[in-house]
Write a structure and sequence with these properties.
By secondary structure, the protein is mainly α. It is 44% helix and 6% strand. Helix 4 packs antiparallel against helix 6. It comes from Eschrichtius robustus (California gray whale).
Length: 178
């Protein structure tokens, strides 16, 4: 597979993405995860290495190796990539599809800053790299209590995403997928 189709390779090459590209990826990824969660599939390892890019740069979720079809949407297995692992997993608690929200929060940060956050807070030097709107979105996904994390539909509707996204596919295109 050509490297231009791999999000991780693109990120390595440019080190960071601008707000337009990041917001577009966040919007399209949120819709893809809404679809997966609607089918009772939890990915549990959303990260740049597991995202491919379509012909127009749209993200495509790949590597479902840690994913699970969970009709109850409740699991206890610790899995995924440590930098992207939510607290409920590392603490051995039950988790549900909201683990993917934690993953996209880490992804958004990494796309804008160039590396995954080492802590649950924004390092001061990184806070100046991107605008307040992105920081607010990331903060709303950065909730220890998974029931308080911003729902995926609200990720797509977040003002920062709306202001910067240059979405290729329209949401109605997803409704026609069987």
């Amino acid at each position: 597979m050509p490297s231009q189709w791999k999000l991780y390779k693109n990120l390595q090459k440019s080190r960071t993405f601008d707000e337009k590209r990041t917001a577009t990826i966040m919007e399209e990824l949120a819709d893809a995860l809404i679809y997966c969660h609607g089918k009772k599939v939890i990915h549990r390892d959303v990260k740049p290495e597991n995202l491919l890019l379509g012909l127009q740069g749209e993200p495509k979720i790949a590597d479902f190796g840690w994913s699970v079809h969970a009709p109850s949407l409740r699991r206890k297995t610790m899995c995924g990539t440590l930098d992207y692992m939510p607290p409920e997993m590392t603490e051995g608690r039950m988790h549900n599809e909201k683990v993917d929200l934690w993953c996209i929060r880490v992804l958004c940060y990494e796309l804008l800053v160039g590396n995954a956050p080492l802590q649950e807070r924004f390092p001061k030097q990184d806070a100046t790299v991107y605008r307040q709107g992105a920081q607010e979105l990331i903060s709303k996904l950065l909730k220890h209590n998974l029931s308080e994390r911003l729902p995926l539909a609200q990720v797509s509707a977040h003002p920062w995403v709306r202001a910067h996204s240059r979405r290729v596919l329209f949401p109605s295109a997803l409704q026609s997928v069987p």
